[in-house]
């Protein structure tokens, strides 16, 4: 039974006249004696027009999504949340980031007091000193740039210049060289002052076993050689022992020579 319905009764289905079915037309009080068919018409009318006007004009149903309401902005939604940041909670740009379990941060600012020890991935745009608690005490200013530069400077040269002092070079031992870093020989080049022929052997041994002897040759049968020319180069190094360790000693010996007065032997190496 309906009570206190307001408005005009003319739109109700089954309406005949106010004095026929309504004891009080002003308040639309439906008497108990109203026929069932007319009562059902009134109920259907009320249900049909209860939410007239679209979203926001009726009751909210828990089975329906938020689209049943009028359009809502992020700011309005944030305004009704009491715990919009934190683990498992909503996050809004401009608010605190909370404590996500995992993620990739971009343009993060603030202090790192709450971060736990772990790995840091950097790029060329990282400048200034970086400090860490638990891993390293500090990474000095420009240390990353220095490390990157050292990684790129892996190629170097070792060698000796043999000078006859204006006279033809003599045979025999001409000098020794300590290896400053672990490396691998990749080529051997000879350059002379004039056309001629020369053969140079290279011996290697540890500092503890100094001096190296012919028994310590690293060139096998492919000794650095110039034959009636001013220069030669060898990047094949057939049979060579090319691995050098920091602290090893190289000794250079002229096996034979004819007219050269000045010759430079250069060993190209790659740091390991």
Task: Please give a handful of descriptors for the protein shown.
Jelly Rolls, two-stranded antiparallel ribbon, rod-shaped
Structural description of this entry:
This protein has 272 residues and is of the alpha+beta class. The strands form two sheets. Strands 3, 4, 5, 6, 7, 8 and 9 form a seven-stranded antiparallel β-sheet that branches. Strands 1-2 form a two-stranded antiparallel sheet. The protein is 13% helix and 27% strand. The radius of gyration is 47 Å and the shape is rod-shaped. Among the domains are: 9-49, no CATH class; 122-153, no CATH class; 155-271, Jelly Rolls (Sandwich), CATH 2.60.120. Strand 1 and strand 2 form a beta hairpin. The chain starts with 17 loop residues before the first helix and ends with a strand. The model is unreliable at 16-25 and 51-56 (pLDDT under 50). It has helices spanning 18-21, 36-49, 74-80, 143-152, and strands at 130-131, 138-139, 155-163, 172-178, 183-205, 225-234, 243-244, 249-257, 262-271.
CATH level 1 class label of the domain at 155-271: Mainly Beta
Low-confidence stretches: 16-25, 51-56
**Main pleated-sheet profile:** 7 strands, antiparallel
List the secondary-structure elements in sequence, H or E: HHHEEHEEEEEEE
The CA-CA distance between the termini, in Å, is 95 Å
Structural class: alpha+beta
Architecture (CATH level 2) name of the domain at 155-271: Sandwich
Number of strands: 9
Rg (C-alpha, Å): 47 Å
What coarse outline follows from CA principal-axis ratios? Answer: rod-shaped
Give the % helix.
10-25%
The overall average pLDDT, rounded, is: 76
Instruction: Tell me the CATH topology of the domain at 155-271.
Output: Jelly Rolls
Total of helices: 4
Strand content: 25-35%
């Amino acid at each position: 039974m309906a009570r206190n319905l307001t408005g005009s009764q003319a739109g109700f289905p089954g309406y005949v006249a106010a004095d026929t079915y309504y004891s009080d037309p002003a308040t639309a009080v439906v008497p108990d004696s109203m026929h069932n068919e007319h009562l059902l018409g009134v109920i259907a009318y009320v249900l049909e027009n209860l939410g007239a006007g679209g979203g926001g004009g009726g009751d909210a149903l828990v089975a329906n999504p938020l689209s049943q309401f009028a359009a809502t902005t992020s700011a309005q939604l944030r305004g009704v949340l009491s715990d919009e940041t934190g683990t498992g909670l909503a996050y809004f740009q401009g608010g605190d980031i909370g404590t996500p379990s995992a993620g990739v941060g971009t343009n993060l600012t603030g202090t790192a007091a709450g971060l736990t020890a772990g790995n840091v991935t950097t790029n060329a745009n990282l400048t200034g000193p970086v400090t860490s608690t638990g891993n390293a005490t500090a990474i000095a200013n420009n240390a990353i740039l220095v490390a990157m530069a050292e990684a790129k400077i892996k190629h170097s040269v070792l060698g000796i210049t043999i000078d006859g002092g204006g006279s033809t070079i003599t045979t025999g031992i001409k000098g020794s060289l300590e290896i400053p870093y672990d490396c691998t020989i990749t080529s051997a080049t000879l350059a002379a002052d004039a056309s001629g022929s020369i053969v140079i052997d290279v011996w290697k041994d540890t500092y503890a076993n100094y001096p190296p002897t012919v028994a310590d040759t690293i060139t096998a049968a492919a000794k650095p050689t110039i034959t009636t020319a001013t220069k030669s180069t060898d990047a094949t190094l057939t049979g060579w022992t090319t691995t050098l360790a920091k602290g090893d000693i190289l000794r250079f010996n002229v096996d034979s020579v004819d007219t050269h007065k000045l010759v430079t032997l250069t060993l190209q190496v790659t740091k390991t």
